[in-house]
Fold this sequence. Notes:
Shape: elongated
Strand content: 15-25%
Number of domains: 2
Distance between the termini: 72 Å
Mean pLDDT: 84
Largest sheet: 8 strands, antiparallel
Helix content: 25-40%
CATH architecture of the largest domain: Ribbon
Order of helices and strands: HHHEEEEEEEEEEEE
Radius of gyration: 28 Å
CATH class of the largest domain: Mainly Beta
Number of strands: 12
Amino acid sequence: MDRGKEGLRNKKKEWKVFLTTQLTAFDKMVYLCWEIKIPIKNGRKKKKAMDKFQKKCCIFLLFYAMFCAVISFLFHTVWMLNYIPSESMENTLREGDFVIASRLETGEEDIKRYDILIFVPPDNPEEIYIKRVIGLPGETIEVFDGEVYADDVKLDSSFIKEPQDGDGDGSFIVPSGHYFFLGDNRNHSYDSRYWMEEYVPLDNIVAKATHIIFPFQHRRKI
């Protein structure tokens, strides 16, 4: 056997072992495309067909990689996908729902009362919460007798799951640049009424929930 050919084959085997063990899943797919270029003994037509297939495969992988990169970029800068882990926002959001949120609507001028926001709670900065905005900066929020008032004006409660009990009643003065949050399932929600730091600063707000996308039977705009 020709030593040059034997050495080439051994070298190729070494590279194949290296590529198989070191490269990512995507790199392996690209490598497989390259592997198809090995000469074929069954004639020019088969080789041309294989080259054509290889080109299509590589083009597909290129567009797939670009698509993944764009989606990843968008979900880090424009959108946010959030899983609902508890019953605290029922019946608006149910445990197990997946919600799409906008990262671009978190400025002071974008946030309105009753918006459902995703934020980092001051008491627990390792977590992400999703609740409804009830109190705006500078307002006095009063919770008593199953109702909520902002500067003595009774607020809408049509979205809450059930009549609110008296647990967590009190008066709360929302500082400038901060927000007061409640869950829609108020009898089973750990929210601003109970936190040590009751108010969420604007800088802690991550995104505004816009749509439920899964399960499919729950799909709708929020």
